[in-house]
Amino acid sequence: MMNRAYNDFYPPRTETAEPIKQLIEQGAVIVGKTKMISFAASETSKEWLDYQYPYSARADGYQISSGSSTGAGAALTGYSWLDCSLGTDFAGSTRNPASRCGLYGLRPTSGVGDISGIVGGSESFDTIGILARDIDISCNMAISIMKLKEKKIQLPRRIILPLDFFPLADSVHQKMVDEFITILEQYLGITKIELKLADVWAEDPPGEAKGMNLAEYLDCVCT
Question: Which domain holds residue 182?
């Protein structure tokens, strides 16, 4: 968990996590372990106290790799002979490093695969995160780890677009998102639902928010 106190209180693991077992059984060569943000929390590069931050090798070699699977992103930008790297993702921990490091970041649906042996952050959202420079490698990795071919996957019945985050400032990026949503709608045969999370919150805020709007309350939680 990239935390010295955690290492002091918890003994070394005696078994390999299930997703890694799956890869090893299929012939994967595990090169090593990568660094992550302490407890998968919201540390920035300047806040890494127990261990040194793994900067991305892009540009001047001191680019931020985001997190929480920080080292998983930095490793692929620094070593071209690596095919892929793994992290976990329950709130963007793999997708964020992917966006910062110029990689594909794939988050398989929570609950699809066996992730026993992995220290979790949220039972409802925990899943493996896959990083790669090639989208086909990402997909093949997901199939290999999660045994997707053996499962009957129920396709999503809703596409919810949170307008709190759109439109994007970059028009080119926004166009890509729009095209993807259109393709997804056609594939699933459903129409996206647009809503504002802030409005949903305002309609029925929890008592502990004490009148704060969603942004104010989440800022309180994060800090």
Answer: 160-222
Q: Which residues of 96-115 are buried (b: 16+ CB within 10 A; e: fewer)?
A: bbbebbebbbbbbebebbbb
Domain count of the fold of the chain: 2
Predicted pLDDT of residue 220: 62
Each residue of 60-117: pLDDT tens digit?
Answer: 999 999 999 999 999 999 999 999 999 998 888 999 999 999 999 998 888 888 888 9
Nearest alpha carbon to residue 23 among 70, 68, 86 = 86
Residues 10 and 115 placed together within one structural domain of the fold: yes
- Domain boundary (99, 122, 150) is at 150
Cβ–Cβ contacts within 10 Å for residue 166, how many? 12
Taking the alpha carbons of 61, 66, 67, 73 in that order, is the dihedral positive or negative? Answer: negative
Task: Tell me if 174 sits within 8 A of 163, measured CB to CB.
Answer: no
Beta strands in the chain (DSSP E): 84-88, 104-106, 128-132, 160-162, 193-195
Residues in the chain, total: 223
- 0.85 exceeded by the pTM? no
d(C-alpha 68, C-alpha 71), whole Å: 9
